[in-house]
Amino acid sequence: MRLAAEGLSGERGGERIFSGISFELESGRALAVTGPNGAGKTTLLRIIAGLLPAAEGRVTLSGDEERWPGVAGACHYLGHLNAMKAALTVEENLAFWRAFLGATGLFPQEALEAVGLGGIGHLPFAYLSAGQRRRTAIARLLVSHRPVWLLDEPTAGLDQASASRFSALMREHLAAGGIIVAATHLPLGFETVEELRMGKRQ
Ligand SMILES: Nc1ncnc2c1ncn2[C@@H]1O[C@H](COP(=O)(O)OP(=O)(O)OP(=O)(O)O)[C@@H](O)[C@H]1O
């Protein structure tokens, strides 16, 4: 499987944020997108996820078109917001996502154990600390299989042990043939094969 971006330009509020971004990632490879605040890292991830249109260029996913006919449907997008309902329990939130995205991954309790939150599935999401919320959002990546993980500052708010655990989960995803594009200010904790450095804006 190969994720490719060709000549991507991104705009926000009618203003060109970046242009001429190209890359190719084979199964098992990760791309760390780095650069200063406002460089367009989130914008790029959202374009890849199909959440924003590209001003120019295109993103394609090839190699298993029968199973993954489009890029958007093949992606998990972990944004700054955690995409959980405050009033539902942690486990109910994950059960919702598993039903919504497809029961092709771990059960909610298994996913919670994988992020070290096995004991708190019964708590309302609203009760969780910032780091626990982030770890629950990471558990969402595990309840339904998607080959491409798009991660925006995935380790923000995580303590060192949680960041190491997540790093191991990312390595497992790559070892299983997955692809990762991560916007990050911090090292991801494994040898990223490529870095895409986005420019300074102002
Ligand atoms: N909805 C919007 N309308 C207009 N401009 C926007 C909008 N969203 C973002 N921008 C602008 O687009 C630029 C790129 O933002 P983006 O969030 O992609 O940067 P980033 O590299 O992810 O930054 P950070 O490291 O701070 O997360 C910024 O100047 C931002 O102010």
UniProtKB/TrEMBL annotation:
ABC transporter domain ranges (all copies): 3-201
GO biological process: cytochrome complex assembly
InterPro entries from the UniProt entry: AAA+_ATPase, ABC_transporter-like_ATP-bd, ABC_transptr_haem_export_CcmA, P-loop_NTPase
Pfam families: ABC_tran
Domain of life: Bacteria
Keywords: ATP-binding, Cytochrome c-type biogenesis, Membrane, Nucleotide-binding, Translocase, Transport
GO molecular function: ATP binding; ATP hydrolysis activity; transmembrane transporter activity
PANTHER family attached to this UniProt entry: ABC TRANSPORTER I FAMILY MEMBER 1
This protein's name: Heme ABC exporter ATP-binding protein CcmA
Organism, as annotated: Chelativorans petroleitrophicus
